[in-house]
Amino acid sequence: MDHFLYRNGILHAEDVSLPEIAAAVGTPFYVYSTATLERHFRLFQEALSPLDHLVCFAVKSNGNIAVLKTLARLGAGMDVVSIGEYLRAKAAGVPGDRIVFSGVGKTREEMRMALEGGIRQFNVESEPELRALSEVAKSLGATAPITIRVNPDVDARTHEKIATGKKENKFGIPIERAREVYAEAACLPGIEVVGIDVHIGSQLTELEPFEQAYLKVAELTAVLRADGHEIRRLDLGGGLGIPYTRSNEAPPLPLDYGALIKRTVGHLGCEVEIEPGRLISGNAGLLVASVIYLKHGEGRDFLILDAAMNDLVRPSMYGAHHDIVPVIEPAPGVDQQPYDIVGPVCETGDTFARARPLPPVGEGDLVAFRSAGAYGAAMASEYNARPLIPEVLVHGQQFAVIRERPTYDEMINRDRLPAWL
Ligand code: PLP
User: Fold this and answer.
1) Chain segment 117-134, per-residue pLDDT in tens
2) Ligand 1 centre from 190 Cα, in Å?
């Protein structure tokens, strides 16, 4: 469920009409709904209670500090994968003891900054990382709380680029080697083992892969405890999928996911962490664009928008589907016609949809991409020298620009000419 509905024939974000925002900030832009963000976060809170738990929002899905603060005010923790994301979480007012640090390539500098700034735990992904962290912590006279991310060799049945839990993926330590690595961790100075971490992928549309992974984690918990490790925390990762089309998809609900967690690991007496990103922010955001041209091609019509693959890369990168709807509600029963919906970037890959049925739209009309709040703005680039687009947060009848559109000068002036030019 989201809070983007037609009212009097005009698509709104909560109580604000999209043409009103477009008039204020220009197109294209991202717009997020506070009510949807809050609702989705609360669904996870409810799904996990009464377990002792922390819902750590995956900052990678949407790192705007206004989004982070919206969630942090409700008690969210944050899952970060770089020191940049860590600093974003801090800038949003999240205390270090609510931030978990994931990722396969943490540098020593990132470790140092996180240890100095305060961190709940590092999710360690390899032995070299473990040893580096021990050295950094020791040099600071600090102790680094850690989990080790285990790779359970489970097929998440999602897009290959976002599946992370198979043994051929770069993530985590093979679960069969976990005892060995925990034994080493227990002996290293500056390291305190607090639990186990697992994350098998993103946009999972079935519960079964989670179940397989979590059962393996439960088994491992018993084994590691018998080995003398204090396993008091389980980080179960993120990955619950969302419906990207309104018609036929029905991914599992957070409540069922919560029940699965209780069933598989609830008896272990551990504090449970989860790291959802997409399910909280995905359907809380739209990308709004204008039609620049309607171009008649060979046997097809191209709708050329002012948004492009640099603003929303998911369709070209993953072949992902986003529902695209006109901002002015079409009259009931109006005939639809197929359009190839594209952006202005000089690549054929800059195609959002092919032969997508839409009611007739023309130059200057506004269209909205649904489900664009996760991995949208966060993955945007300036490819083709297109400045990053603004982000807007709506709260009831209010809206605010939460990231400005840079001017062309701001974009260009970041470059420097060397002395010989
Ligand atoms: N945690 C980790 C370690 C991740 O790599 C990701 C994304 O791939 C997430 C959490 C969030 O996943 P999602 O946005 O699908 O919930």
Assistant:
1) 999 999 999 999 999 999
2) 27
